[in-house]
Amino acid sequence: MSARSIASGTISFGLVSIPVKLFSASQSSAAISFNLLHGKCGSRLKQQYICPRDDNAIVPREEMVKGYEFAKDRYVTFTPEELKALEEKSTQQIEIAEFVPSEKIDPVYFDKPYYLGPEKGADRAYRLLAEAMRRSGRTALARYAARGKQYLVQIRPLPEGGLVMQTLLYADEVRPFSEVEFEKGEVKEQELALAKQIIDQISTDEFKPEKFEDDVRKRVEAQIQRKVEGQEIQIEPEKPQTQIIDLMDALKASLAAKGLAPQKQPEADAEERKPAKRAPRQERAGKSKASK
């Protein structure tokens, strides 16, 4: 089944314009949601807004206005026309500002991905841009105006030959890691060797997302089906977790769980095989004279 485009746009860089179609790269959310019901009769509850200053009176939607809090409990209100005037004009233009090396964009800035496909008659220019970026090892940073907002986006080539547009977070939307408490220190070589051994044992050369499934969602769905069929949910007692405080013990236990033994370190073995240091010749000679 062919994907259905959700919007259209035009990639522009220099004097080149490439009409494209946007497709959502993600499937509809498979998250399981539960509704709030009235425990007495089982009816689904409806949400209402109340005004705490007006004796908790229920406020209908037609009496609601939007406001911005500029100080504690102080607001300025806006009419629908004023809010519309504040919105960014949706030009659907994807204006490339610069090209950067692909690896220079930290994934922490990634937001939502969209596939880009060429509009009719734009295939040649579309292929040219994708191939040029692939060979240069660079991706494009662009501005995209849609739905009343301006987005920072990355356009990058896919191995299949197409393009993907990734909306990015702005710098002030990303919290700096410096806010995270992190104590720097030395790493012990023995511990590092064991950690690297664990990494080597479970390493692969390719990312294959089809290998992974949402086991929790499958388990919840199975339990929901039991309830639908009139059965009780199977509640398993929690298993006590063994706490391993020592880091070396934890690393060794991780290897033992996979039936592996820690590898001996060549550096350590070489150190053990080294002969004891002999005293300098003059010192040995002095000792022999003294013994006479």
Which labels suit this protein?
7 helices, two-stranded antiparallel sheet, 292 residues, Ku70, Chain: A, Domain 2, 27% helix, 25% strand, seven-stranded mixed barrel, alpha+beta
Description:
With 292 residues, the chain is α+β, with helices and mostly antiparallel strands. The chain has a domain at 7-26 and 89-173: Beta Barrel (Ku70, Chain: A, Domain 2), CATH 2.40.290.10. The chain contains seven helices and eleven strands. A seven-stranded mixed β-barrel has the order 1-2-8-11-10-9-7. A hairpin with a 5-residue loop joins strand 3 and strand 4 (57-58).
Explain briefly what this protein structure is:
By secondary structure, the protein is α+β, with helices and mostly antiparallel strands. 27% of the residues lie in helices and 25% in strands. It has a domain at 7-26 and 89-173: Beta Barrel (Ku70, Chain: A, Domain 2).
Distance between the termini: 100 Å
Radius of gyration: 32 Å
Specify the overall morphology: extended
Helical/strand content category: alpha+beta
Strands in their spatial order, largest beta sheet: 1-2-8-11-10-9-7
**Number of helical elements:** 7
Q: At the third CATH level, what is the topology name of one domain?
A: Ku70, Chain: A, Domain 2
Overall pLDDT score:
84
Tell me the major beta sheet. Answer: 7 strands, mixed, barrel
Strand content: 25-35%
N-to-C series of helices and strands: EEEEEEHEEHEEEHHHHH
| CATH hierarchy class name of one domain | Mainly Beta
Low-confidence stretches: 268-273
- Mind telling me which CATH architecture of one domain this is? Beta Barrel
Helix content: 25-40%
Number of strands: 11
